[in-house]
């Protein structure tokens, strides 16, 4: 039986939870791996349903057409499933780099990440970027090297590349036997087992043979002589040259164990899942003000890391995705919405079981629940049983691209404002209202977000919009004493706008302007990030 606890003092219901995200470069196999996770988690009956489900969702919401056309995933969701004695909560991250802010916030809601790399391509740009984000939070990372059924790189090369590029120790949890067409499975280095892939049926789980070291005579019957010799040599070298698995180093984010497999052939996935259970972290302590929140605390606390609006355009509903930070939540509980100090009865929370949304009767620290609401819940909000705690570390980034936006029909300006405010609250874009003049300026991190925004405003509000070049290219939040900020705004009117929270933002085209403010206005500071609260 696997040991489920990294820390002995957690209640078993909490210590068996593993909340994680998958990070990868597009096409490495994230969707396929997710599908297999769900398959083994008993959440779906047959592989292929995740995609099929995706299709069904897309027909419901037309803006998803764009996602489909481009083959990218714009929206994130959370899925729960059981495996052995573990409860896995998998939070999906949007794959495209244009949605990095969303991804960043998603990663604040997980305790670990599974990094998927393509065995032929190694560490690709998007993997590298996402890895850096995980590193900022010292997130433990488990690695899955996928597509081993195809021609892939030399095993040592792959491991070296990860060590070099990502500056993390890599320890092999399994070792591939043969490459490409000759690939036949892996030697499970942690459990001294042979896992043999079934090429005939993609959905058949590998045959597992317990052996007694690589000198075991049974190996001669199972593996062709040349491959066996190579395997013995390589494993011996690996044991000499590569670091041994150190569970503590994994939990601290300094070491990543790597499994080799082929998601599409269902190969190596179970071993990876066992690994997430055994070496992945249980729910972690959450940073908050004025004190941290420990998962084992009796009282319930949670925070919003994502808001998804109009999941069903007919109903204008919004779902706030809440990561439970502590306690044992039960449906119907009254929690305090700390920002507004108002009580909120959580009567219809949803749990995202892979099959569909379902009412969540209960949730423990580590779980992700969805709370339908009409806009009260925003990204960064904390819910507690009364204590004024505020979860920290959920940033908002200054946009890197700015454009003016106008309603195609000038009479619909008010409608546009409403739509924009909603997208701003959802975190889909930054919206700035200039102090002088009319109209709005929209800020995003990647160009594609403009298109998504325009298409959603048209779909969900029936409002065609047009973008216009903006005279500004940078936005900075203005911080300082209220009076100082107001005075600053007053003498820089042409540069000033307000974000959707009413906070003052300095817009400019020139770095020179930003430097000038630092020099001439010592009472205020300009920042490129803002804590959501
Ligand atoms: P994502 O973009 O990371 O979600 O990648 P997908 O899961 O959609 O996979 C991208 C492509 O790689 C698809 O055509 C998959 O069928 C294929 N693929 C995924 N896993 C494997 C694998 O283990 N072996 C091979 N040969 N192809 C795979």
Task: Walk me through this protein's architecture.
The protein has 533 residues and is of the alpha+beta class. It folds into three domains: 17-180 and 244-279, Rossmann fold; 288-391, Rossmann fold (3-Layer(aba) Sandwich); 398-531, Alpha-Beta Plaits. It has 15 helices and 33 strands. The longest helix has 17 residues, at 225-241. It is elongated, with a radius of gyration of 25 Å. The site of guanosine-5'-diphosphate has 16 residues, from helix 2. Residues 24, 26-32, 146-147, 149-150, 262-265 line the site of guanosine-5'-diphosphate. Keywords: Cytoplasm, GTP-binding, Nucleotide-binding, Protein biosynthesis. Its main location: cytoplasm. It is found in: Cytoplasm. This is Peptide chain release factor 3. GTP binds at residues 24-31, 92-96, 146-149.
Supply the key terms.
single chain, alpha+beta, Rossmann fold, Alpha-Beta Plaits, eight-stranded antiparallel sheet, 33 strands, 29% helix, elongated, binds guanosine-5'-diphosphate, GTPase activity, GTP binding
